[in-house]
Design the sequence.
């Protein structure tokens, strides 16, 4: 999986940081073809702490339907530190439900947002999604990688 490098500029009143982000997590055989580049906070957290936010860029390579059938979504979410968000479903092994409000902006490519009521919403470059606690999964059924910027806001 080739992951596009992300430049992060952090400007504050007394400092300017201009770096290439090194907090990248590839999920490998746990979730083939998916990687997260953690933008903020700098330590690479996926879920925000109470009262805070997280900012990441997720890359979804095209899914292999046969390989997807062998994936253990529950184990994948547990290993990612988010076991409580996984939801069992015949629809997709990575259905989950977060306790955050998630803002997603498709940067490149095309992806399907699968909802637990059998709806499928196709999002393309430039589209925006506001995810408010629904059970869902992201599925790239297309022939090109998709990158989505996510801002997760804690609801507690």
Sequence:
């Amino acid at each position: 999986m080739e992951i596009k490098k992300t430049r992060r500029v952090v400007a504050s009143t007394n400092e300017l940081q201009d770096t290439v982000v090194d907090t990248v997590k590839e999920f490998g055989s746990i979730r083939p073809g998916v990687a997260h580049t953690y933008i903020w906070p700098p330590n690479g957290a996926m879920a925000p702490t109470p009262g805070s936010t997280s900012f990441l860029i997720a890359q979804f390579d095209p899914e292999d339907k046969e390989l997807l059938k062998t994936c253990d979504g529950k184990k994948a979410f547990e290993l990612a530190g988010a076991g409580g968000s996984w939801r069992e479903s015949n629809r997709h092994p990575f259905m989950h439900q977060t306790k955050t409000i998630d803002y997603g902006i498709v940067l490149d490519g095309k992806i399907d947002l699968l909802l637990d009521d059998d709806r499928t919403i196709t999002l393309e470059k430039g589209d925006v999604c506001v995810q408010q606690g629904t059970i869902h999964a992201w599925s790239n059924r297309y022939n090109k990688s998709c990158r989505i910027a996510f801002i997760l806001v804690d609801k507690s």
In short: DSSP finds two helices and eleven strands in the chain.
